[in-house]
Amino acid sequence: MAQPIDVEKRLTDLEVKASFTEDLVDHLNQIVSSQQKHIDLLLLEVARLREQGSSGDGDAFRSLRDELPPHY
């Protein structure tokens, strides 16, 4: 049979582990929330760029090869 001191120590160890786990979950939740905000902003930016590209000045497809850099 387990000694009362052993049970108390094991219980204390479990409480410490649970506390660290709770802190870790809170931290990870904040990271996920921050990343979701960034993803939402990026999706809005992509949608805005697509809209800007489709409602552009009506030019046909232009290749980057057609546009020479300033040093040429």
State the share of residues found in helices, binned by percent: over 70%
Secondary-structure element order, N to C: H
* First-last Cα distance: 87 Å
Could you tell me the radius of gyration in angstroms?
29 Å
General form: rod-shaped
Largest sheet: none
User: How many beta-strand elements?
Assistant: 0
Beta-strand percent range: under 5%
Structural class: mainly alpha
Low-confidence stretches: none
How many distinct helices? 1
Mean pLDDT reading = 88
Descriptive overview:
This protein is an all-alpha fold and 72 residues long. Helices cover 71% and strands 0% of the residues. It has 1 helix and no strands. The chain has one helix spanning 4-54. The longest helix is centred in the middle third of the chain and has 51 residues, at 4-54.
Main attributes of the structure:
mainly alpha; 72 residues; 71% helix; 1 helix; single chain
Compact description:
This protein is mostly helical and 72 residues long. It is built from one helix and no strands.
Describe the secondary structure blueprint for this structure.
Layout: H1 4-54
